[in-house]
């Protein structure tokens, strides 16, 4: 009986691009269908903006609060998208054995992590789009196309350190504790960094602690789009985020290597 010859797969750049695109597509569909994840990352920033942004328009001299919170809540939602998708998501899949199955498959590990990071970024774009739309429609916010593009770029690129933090947490936490631990980390950091209100209204001791937090530098980059950032060079904020990402990735690599050696 004649059998069809099996043609070898050529591992070219288009092959890997197609693989990354498919993995990202299915990861995005899975995240979108996960109501707990999609409602938490999209619903909370929108709900808070409707409660505090739309109803507190034009408060304070030289400050359009509705515009300020477009930047603040965009960062707040993007941090949640990165932390929960990488942190809680990987921890859950590790506990269910799904991560082990992925590792046994011929798919590159980078595609698995890259798909989760890209999915978080796509949610970040959706959050910025929703908040800008609400700000224009209900908050009396005036923004230019250049500002929207700038804000989206800052929010998406600046989320990489928080995805790195999520990856580290996923290696350290059991799945059932992951959501609680992440909330204990990112909610206080968001509050102390001025994502919910101008940092000048916080107690002085909190204002001194804030520059040590990555969320502070992330917020300053986003607020700079509308001219609400505190004085200081933009490069310093990018350097702080890059240093934090390297620290988290380096620690995650050490933890992963030690766990593999013990296995």
Describe this structure in words.
Keywords: Cell membrane, Membrane, Transmembrane, Transmembrane helix, Transport. With 263 residues, the chain is mainly alpha-helical. The protein has one domain. Helices cover 74% and strands 0% of the residues. The chain is built from eleven helices and no strands. Helix 3 packs parallel to helix 7 and helix 3 runs antiparallel to helix 8. The longest helix is centred in the first third of the chain and has 32 residues. It is globular, with a radius of gyration of 20 Å. The termini are far apart. The model has no long low-confidence stretch (mean pLDDT 86).
Concise structural overview:
With 263 residues, the protein is mostly helical. It is 74% helix and 0% strand. The longest helix has 32 residues, at 65-96.
Low-confidence stretches: none
**Which overall shape is indicated by the principal axes computed on the Cα atoms?**
globular
Average of the residue pLDDT scores: 86
Number of domains: 1
Rounded to the nearest angstrom, the radius of gyration is 20 Å
Helical segment tally?
11
Protein name: Transport permease protein
Family: Belongs to the ABC-2 integral membrane protein family.
GO molecular function: ABC-type transporter activity
Membrane topology: Multi-pass membrane protein
């Amino acid at each position: 009986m004649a059998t069809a010859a099996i043609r070898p797969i050529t591992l070219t750049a288009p092959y890997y691009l197609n693989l990354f695109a498919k993995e990202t597509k299915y990861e995005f569909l899975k995240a979108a269908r996960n109501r707990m994840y999609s409602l938490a990352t999209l619903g909370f920033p929108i709900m808070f903006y409707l409660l505090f942004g739309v109803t507190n328009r034009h408060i304070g001299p030289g400050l359009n609060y509705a515009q300020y919170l477009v930047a603040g809540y965009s960062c707040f939602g993007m941090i949640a998208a990165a932390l929960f998708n990488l942190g809680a998501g990987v921890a859950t899949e590790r506990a269910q054995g799904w991560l082990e199955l992925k590792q046994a498959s011929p798919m590159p590990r980078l595609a698995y992590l890259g798909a989760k990071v890209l999915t978080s970024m796509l949610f970040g774009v959706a959050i910025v789009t929703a908040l800008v739309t609400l700000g224009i429609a209900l908050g009396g916010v005036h923004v230019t196309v250049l500002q929207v593009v700038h804000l989206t770029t800052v929010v998406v690129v600046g989320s990489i350190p928080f995805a790195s933090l999520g990856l580290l947490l996923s290696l350290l936490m059991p799945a059932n504790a992951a959501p609680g631990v992440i909330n204990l980390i990112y909610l206080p950091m968001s509050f102390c960094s001025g994502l919910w209100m101008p940092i000048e209204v916080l107690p002085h001791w909190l204002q001194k602690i804030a520059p040590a937090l990555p969320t502070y530098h992330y917020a300053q980059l986003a607020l700079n789009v509308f001219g609400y950032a505190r004085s200081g060079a933009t490069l310093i904020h990018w350097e702080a985020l890059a240093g934090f990402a390297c620290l988290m990735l380096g620690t995650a690599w050490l933890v992963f290597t030690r766990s593999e050696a013990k296995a």
